[in-house]
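Researcher: Please predict.
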Amino acid sequence: MSLNNSSNIFLDSVPSNTNRFQVNVINENHESSAMANDNTDPPHYEETSFGDEAQKRLRISFRPGNQECYDNFLQSGETAKTDASFHAYDSHTNTYYLQTFGHNTMDAVPKIEYYRNTGSISGPKVNRPSLLEIHEQLAKNVAITPSSADRVANGDGIPGDEQAENKEDDQAGVVKFGWVKGVLVRCMLNIWGVMLFIRLSWIVGEAGIGLGVIIIGLSVVVTTLTGISMSAICTNGVVRGGGAYYLISRSLGPEFGGSIGLIFAFANAVAVAMYVVGFAETVVDLLKESDSMMVDPSNDIRIIGSITVVILLGISVAGMEWEAKAQVILLVILLIAIVNFFIGTVIPSNNEKKSRGFFNYQASIFAENFGPRFTKGEGFFSVFAIFFPAATGILAGANISGDLEDPQDAIPRGTMLAIFITTIAYLGVAICVGACVVRDATGNMNDTIISGMNCNGSAACGLGYDFSRCRHEPCQYGLMNNFQVMSMVSGFGPLITAGIFSATLSSALASLVSAPKVFQALCKDNIYKALQFFAKGYGKNNEPLRGYILTFLIAMAFILIAELNTIAPIISNFFLASYALINFSCFHASYAKSPGWRPAYGIYNMWVSLFGAVLCCAVMFVINWWAAVITYVIEFFLYVYVTYKKPDVNWGSSTQALSYVSALDNALELTTVEDHVKNFRPQCIVLTGGPMTRPALLDITHAFTKNSGLCICCEVFVGPRKLCVKEMNSGMAKKQAWLIKNKIKAFYAAVAADCFRDGVRSLLQASGLGRMKPNTLVIGYKKNWRKAPLTEIENYVGIIHDAFDFEIGVVIVRISQGFDISQVLQVQEELERLEQERLALEATIKDNECEEESGGIRGLFKKAGKLNITKTTPKKDGNINTIQSMHVGEFNQKLVEASTQFKKKQEKGTIDVWWLFDDGGLTLLIPYILTLRKKWKDCKLRIYVGGKINRIEEEKIAMASLLSKFRIKFADIHIIGDINIKPNKESWKVFEEMIEPYRLHESCKDLTTAEKLKRETPWKITDAELEAVKEKSYRQVRLNELLQERSRAANLIVLSLPVARKGSISDLLYMAWLEILTKNLPPVLLVRGNHKNVLTFYS
């Protein structure tokens, strides 16, 4: 349709407040076409705008005279909402299209709303026009509602302005933090722990300034590498709540995430107790100095700790805003304490401080303290193990990722800056304290130098003090002995005590918030179903109040136990395990080479991340080897548990990506290997239709392909392509999921085709990948061939011919009851639907019992209660009526039982193999594989082969020799010498009666009539054909007699499939052969290989 460029046609958008791309609504009608001749103004097109991204509504303005046209459009009763998005509207008067870039099209321009997940909290998800809508012919008489303009921008089913405003109101009370308050402050407070004030001086005394800096540097390397890896993961997509658990689970999958998430949340909960006990110990020390003990030191710690954790819980439950304010106050106190220390180092020392080892900055002290001087039992790694927990805490910001405004920006920036600032502080304190304070001091102001005394290079001696007796007896002061060195050095000692309080309380508060947040995210994912109770959140911020209570109880329990020295190494290792997995996640995602791995944070390297993971694991053993072992054991147990439970989640993890890459690499590598007969295995295409509709056919095939060969369940959809493709695509995932649920190691594949045979032909040629291509076609026997339309028979026999043409073996399986249970499934679905309706009706009645009209509903229920669900059938479906009446019948029961017969363990018996023709060995290989399976192991092979009646023993020996070379165990061998004799008259009569309806009988008619009949019914069996293959017909009937005689009691019969020569054997005659051959027998497998060796006796 040509576009009329009349100014009356275009309904232009308002120039202001435009969307990213302007979409116009086009109105075309005959009246406007006429008006175009009178109006010569050039058309006005709205420019594409890249302006206000948040403006998502389509705004429409009108030229003078066009407002009435649009009003008529809105008021007409012809408009109605469409499915999916804004469609074209066409009638006798008006036609409406979308205009993009000045063209009539339904194609939508790129928008972020198209890529959001359903239920996204950042905005509504928009459905772009489907490919079908764009590709198919434009629908006629499709109407739109007055709100269609909104739906052009917002997508189908997206809330309008009113709902958007409601959503904004809902978000109004939510507290979100920026990178400073949300990440930087928290990480700094957690990294600056008690270690800074009461242990760093001792570490410098033991390791010296040089090794002390190396210890700090090594710790920072671990945290920096982890921070870089975490930054890469955070910037590879939107980050939700859950911190380390969220990052690891979305990268490595629920198995790793679920295991580390649980122990990480527990570690944070116990860490609350550790920090609170550290605070309580400091308070108790102050009480000792003032002689104000309440009971005794241990119980005082418990009392103070319990009160403290209750107060911290109150702050946390009050809301994240209050908790953040408390953190800021604590940070200010901590910064003042640190600054107070640096100021104290330059304030001239008095005699009391000098006697305790503090002499301000002295080069001699720096030189003396530069090297290590480890005391008995200490070494580099033991000192490192004591210091390293001080460097942890880098996940404090990430743990509240759900409360950050922009986690992708905040976590990398805040975490890396916090690592940098705290590292400078640690290094500064370590170097300063090492340059100001000697290792040993007596604290006695009278221990000054006596004139003429030899200092022997002692820095204190050179500064006028003699601390030599500290070599022989313990002293109380100096770097090695006094944990309160920073208080002594500082300008105002109580500020250091305040700093210790701030460090402990801030760390405890951060852990008290982190543990419930991580735990809530874990519970929401429903990985551990028993913990679902703790997933519920409360208030605008979705606060995990239940998680707070649980964390409080855990912390209180460990405070009362007060045995934290034992548990502390395990907790440190729990944190390190999280760091290791974060590093490994970054490495794994990079190594998997997934196109979805596109982190905005580019300063990372996969091998550096792997080094960081290995380094974290090594540090775990350095800190405490038995704690590391316990950590690994717990994590392994949880990993196995989650793997076994197989949570129903799909996060697109790098584990999935690597699995794909590995499978692809292996498939490509397999193509370089030539096929060898020793490695042959049946790789089957099974024409099951939907796998649940013919379970027995799939079960018997799976029995000889499981863990050894390829199995593809195939379905052909016949009919109009549009409908077939829609049905095929909608059921693909469901049917593959059914296979997985039933633990069937098979793939599902489907094709849409004009006819069944064409679909199968496509599957035979195109299925598989590389060397993993099907070599065997498995089909069920067409039991209803005598009642089926001729085209179905032609297709059925045709696919056997096609398989042989493509050099693919064929297996036809026949069981007495048939395979198709689709009608039974249909009845079951109908019964389930009726049961659901009944339950819904009962629920409705209960909900309306108190209503005024409840009596009428009760009356309705009484009528419904009289329904017998097993007998009720919808009137509209006659097929369901018929089958549902059969549901209680014997035949239907037998069909259901038959559909599961190959799932059961087979009773002790035999598999009779009638290897009549050498097809390369497939007829023998399949039953042999079956005997290896657990369900068939009690069945022995009996081999039947044809032979001459006067050479039975010789041929039996020859066959036994061949089987022994093939290393195939067998119970017995039978040589059948009377295969080619005529069958008895009764059997032959049954065969003749079977084919009688399909015979042409042209020999009984004149030549003209015979030729006419051949032309009209070319599918019928001619007398000439029947006479030409009479011996073969005799053989099929005779074989059935032998099978009835010798194998009637077998568990399974495997029989060589007769081949119908193309152009010589009619389809109906071939079906008659198969029918008479397998009639009234146990389950039968008719097998014909492609006549290439599948067995060998060479090594």
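Model: The chain has three domains: 179-446+456-645, 673-825, 909-1088.
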